[in-house]
Amino acid sequence: MQQQTPHIRHIKNERLQTIKPGYRGNKLINGHFANGEELYEPDFKNVLRWQLTKNPQREEKKRDTYVPKLQTGSDFLRSQDDMVVWLGHSSFFIRLNGVTFLTDPIFYDLPLTKRRVGLPCPPRQLQNIDFLLLSHAHRDHFDVRSIRTVFNQNPNLKVLAPLHSGDLLRDINPLIPYQEAGWYQQYDLLPAGVEVYFMPASHWHRRSLLDMNKVLWGSFIIKTEKTILYFAGDSAFAPHFEEIESLFGPMDVCLMPVGAYKPAFLMQKSHLNPHEAVRAYNNLRGGTFIPMHYGTYDLSDEPASEPVRLLEQIAASGIMQGLRIPAVGEPVLLDNLP
What we know:
Layout: E1 8-11, E2 17-18, E3 26-29, E4 32-33, H1 44-52, H2 58-63, E5 83-86, E6 92-96, E7 99-103, E8 131-133, H3 144-153, E9 158-162, H4 166-172, E10 178-181, E11 185-186, E12 195-199, E13 219-223, E14 228-231, H5 240-248, E15 253-257, H6 264-267, H7 274-283, E16 288-292, H8 306-316, E17 331-333
Parallel strand pairs: 7-8, 8-9, 9-10, 14-15, 15-16
Antiparallel strand pairs: 1-3, 2-11, 3-4, 5-6, 5-17, 6-7, 11-12, 12-13, 13-14
């Protein structure tokens, strides 16, 4: 039987500026977003293999009681300083040039997976937020209850999101204002002095049985006159880190995922391990490295403390500079960085 030629098209938000010269938009193959040029769909057989394979670090993981430190309080919400505050997993409060952002909010338990560390303050206190940045629609980054909570407390909030995420947002609340972007596109909702760009990541999408790769994924650049901040979202190691640096120059702050990387046969095309995260950070010519996507939820086979131990070992070897491992709720003041 003759194979059917796949239907290929490229899409972007035609109303937004595309900063990569000649870029036609994100590639869709038969209606599914490609991971760059190639379609990537995780193989369910690997999930089954994971469930049937004994974790070689099982006993070590059982003994590992590591939980990220927690600094309680909400003073950071009233400060005027430029800062980054980790809220656990991939959720950050960011203030740059007086504009406030939240990234990938997840404040509660996941289905079958409890949150292991608290928040610095109750979610209802997260007020005066200007923009919500959503890197992709996996449930540990695009959490319905958390997004609803944030919007209820911040009725003037605007969402900066990937292509084809609008239906999900309207299901949460039809009044949520949002703007979708493809890779290499600049959102146009920002006030003067702050720019936000949606950039590539090597990942995938799925929330239900029938929506594989129907919503785009990516990373973010937040840029002011003084600071370029990179939020990596979820990503495997790929050439896009080097390309981002070629477009923007060195990153002052890199928020990098370092957890949920074992077993490699399941995770290596979705997530960075600590060594890969440092390699990506070096490709970005990063200044300050702040880790995320570890310690908050148990999603994989590595022991809870392993990502932090590996990062500290790598930093001690001199391969990277600028490692900061803040507590949940601890402000990292950007004017004080080297």
